[in-house]
Amino acid sequence: MPASNTVRRRTVTIHDVALAAGVATSTVSRALSNPERVRASTREHVGRIASELGYLPPSAAKSKSLAAAAEAGPARARRSGTPADGLGVVALLVPDIGNPFLTEIIRGSQRQLAAAGYLQVLVDTEESGDVEWQTLQKLLGTVDGVVLTASRLTDEQLITVAARVPLVVLNRETPGVASTIVDTPTGFEALVEHLVSLGHRSLLYVSGPAESWSNTRRLAAVQRAGERLGVDVAVTRPFRPTRESGVAAADTAINSGATACIAYNDLLAIGILGRLAERGVAVPAEMSVVGCDDIFGTDFCSPALTTIAAPIEQAGRAAVSLLLGLFDPSAAPRRQAVTIGTHLVIRHSTGPAPIGGHDA
């Protein structure tokens, strides 16, 4: 089939050109923006395919769009434009840009993309599956690939997106979709073992968002370890993974009778520590508190927070490496999943269970 027959109705991207030419997307980017960096034969081949597909580099597409928009009026002209001229573009979607855990993901993915000649476009989806889905519908056809962090979409939605654009999900596992997973369940089992070794027999898991895949896995790990070790595990209602939500979660913890509080993430745990201090509950003498992620500042808390740590920047880099592998149709099959290990960091927010349990 001639390459020109592969033209889609949507805007042609350099990924389309790479697929038709049988080369890596990075090769197309170099051939079109830095032709001296590739062999003449490759440059000519890529140029011919791009021409047949009707591909326009971002700068040319922008000029064409602006010219058309000038006839249609200023409102349309304001919507034209591209993220960067002559660069491949990858979108990174995160549920909360204010979460320090995600800062490391953003840094790692951006550095890995920059090294490969790509620009990262960052979108905050506000912990909303609807916002995430609507954003993806707008991005498809304008970016070369997508990395989703802690996606709130259904498996069916993720599979649909993966069929239209190279996609990697981070901290989410869906059959047929490339993924990078931080192994927090193993860390949560270690947390339970640590608390039980200190004499705790009544634990409270402070739940994260109900739609969070990671929350489901972390809760299951805590319950699994609790059953194995013969201790009671109570579960709160879902909370947003923020410090502010930790304040309300602390009141729930105080009234639960539990001697140890296991928070979905560090932000919740930090909020819990602050509220317990306000209410005169000593940590860890009266209640132990643990979190997850080892974000910046957990060692500055009072007391310093026991938590689960992982090389988070490495996770962002690993997700991008998987994505770059999806860009090259001529390459041998690449790994579809990468797992990042975790480890327990014991600080001063955990201690021996109070004799007689916590007095609510």
TrEMBL record:
SUPFAM superfamilies found in the cross-reference section: lambda repressor-like DNA-binding domains, Periplasmic binding protein-like I
Gene3D superfamilies attached to this UniProt entry: 3.40.50.2300, lambda repressor-like DNA-binding domains
SMART domains: HTH_LACI
Alphabetically ordered keywords of this record: DNA-binding, Transcription, Transcription regulation
GO MF annotation: an example: transcription cis-regulatory region binding
Domain of life: Bacteria
Record domain HTH lacI-type: where: 12-66
Record-annotated membrane-spanning stretches: none
InterPro entries: HTH_LacI, LacI/GalR-like_sensor, Lambda_DNA-bd_dom_sf, Peripla_BP_I
PROSITE patterns: HTH_LACI_2
Protein name, per record: LacI family transcriptional regulator
Species for this entry: Subtercola vilae
